[in-house]
């Protein structure tokens, strides 16, 4: 059987995976805190035809996906005017706790800062995960004793007391920000959440925004870093690559048909 046919099959599979990655990026173009993925290929094994010449004579046997990476470049910021909408203006992640798990289990990272305050005073994500402070504790905001509250760039939650109008740090600390050693090694688990892995360093290094050398913006959200122009360009490249590999298979089939006709 012709080697070119198998090479074409491997190429079609890879470009199909590339289209899958692009399709997921485009579907999340308006997802808060989403980070796009990119895919890279590498050549497969090469068959040695002869070593009698000055240089090796080899024929490649196709391609394979080498990596699918997450691009953690910051997305654009959108002003919402909602005080509990937060954005990290630099590197780092918010840390949230699954209410059904016992710490340190069930802790995840996210860049989606569309938080709300529950009736019990917990600062939570859209899925109900509790946001943690720099000490790893859940954040409670007792709104009954404060006329209003705001969040500054260091991550302090400042409340104005009803009794005397004085400002007070509601949580006695700062909103937690984690800075893993290798963000590209984080594992996506859905819901705009990431899970620590050995590749990411295992230690999430929970601290404050200052510790992570960044700031927290209140009343704004970080949008997806997907660039539609770039994605559509990559889609065209993937489509043409798929068609070219399909043509390789078709041509190989025509050659085999000619060989079969030789006996006639």
From TrEMBL:
<keyword id="KW-0282">Flagellum</keyword>
<protein>
    <recommendedName>
        <fullName>Flagellar hook protein FlgE</fullName>
    </recommendedName>
</protein>
<dbReference type="Pfam" id="PF00460">
    <property type="entry name" value="Flg_bb_rod"/>
</dbReference>
<keyword id="KW-0969">Cilium</keyword>
<keyword id="KW-0975">Bacterial flagellum</keyword>
<feature type="domain" description="Flagellar basal body rod protein N-terminal">
    <location>
        <begin position="5"/>
        <end position="35"/>
    </location>
</feature>
<dbReference type="InterPro" id="IPR010930">
    <property type="entry name" value="Flg_bb/hook_C_dom"/>
</dbReference>
<dbReference type="InterPro" id="IPR019776">
    <property type="entry name" value="Flagellar_basal_body_rod_CS"/>
</dbReference>
<dbReference type="InterPro" id="IPR053967">
    <property type="entry name" value="LlgE_F_G-like_D1"/>
</dbReference>
<dbReference type="InterPro" id="IPR037925">
    <property type="entry name" value="FlgE/F/G-like"/>
</dbReference>
<feature type="domain" description="Flagellar hook protein FlgE/F/G-like D1">
    <location>
        <begin position="87"/>
        <end position="157"/>
    </location>
</feature>
<comment type="similarity">
    <text>Belongs to the flagella basal body rod proteins family.</text>
</comment>
<dbReference type="Pfam" id="PF06429">
    <property type="entry name" value="Flg_bbr_C"/>
</dbReference>
<comment type="function">
    <text>A flexible structure which links the flagellar filament to the drive apparatus in the basal body.</text>
</comment>
<feature type="domain" description="Flagellar basal-body/hook protein C-terminal">
    <location>
        <begin position="218"/>
        <end position="262"/>
    </location>
</feature>
<keyword id="KW-0966">Cell projection</keyword>
<dbReference type="Pfam" id="PF22692">
    <property type="entry name" value="LlgE_F_G_D1"/>
</dbReference>
<dbReference type="InterPro" id="IPR001444">
    <property type="entry name" value="Flag_bb_rod_N"/>
</dbReference>
<dbReference type="InterPro" id="IPR020013">
    <property type="entry name" value="Flagellar_FlgE/F/G"/>
</dbReference>
């Amino acid at each position: 059987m012709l080697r070119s046919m198998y090479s074409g099959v491997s190429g079609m599979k890879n470009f199909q995976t590339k289209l899958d990655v692009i399709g997921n990026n485009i579907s999340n173009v308006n997802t808060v805190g989403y980070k796009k993925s990119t895919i890279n290929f590498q050549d497969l094994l090469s068959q040695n035809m002869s070593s009698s010449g000055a240089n090796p004579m080899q024929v490649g046997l196709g391609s394979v996906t080498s990596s699918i990476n997450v691009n953690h470049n910051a997305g654009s910021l959108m002003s919402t005017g909602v005080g509990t909408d937060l954005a990290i203006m630099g590197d780092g992640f918010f840390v949230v706790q699954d209410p059904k798990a016992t710490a340190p289990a069930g802790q995840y990272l996210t860049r989606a800062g569309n938080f709300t305050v529950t009736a019990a005073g917990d600062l939570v994500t859209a899925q109900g995960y509790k946001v943690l402070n720099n000490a790893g504790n859940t954040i409670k905001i007792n709104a009954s004793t404060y006329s209003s509250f705001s969040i500054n760039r260091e991550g302090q939650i400042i409340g104005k007391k009803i009794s005397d109008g004085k400002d007070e740090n509601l949580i006695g600390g700062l909103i937690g920000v984690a800075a893993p050693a290798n963000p590209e090694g984080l594992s996506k688990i859905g819901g705009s959440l990431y899970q620590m892995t050995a590749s990411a360093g295992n230690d999430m290094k929970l601290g404050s925004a200052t510790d992570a050398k960044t700031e927290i913006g209140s009343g704004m959200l970080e949008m997806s870093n997907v660039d539609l122009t770039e994605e559509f360009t990559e889609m065209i490249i993937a489509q043409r690559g798929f068609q070219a590999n399909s043509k390789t298979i078709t041509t190989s089939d025509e050659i085999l048909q000619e060989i079969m006709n030789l006996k006639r």
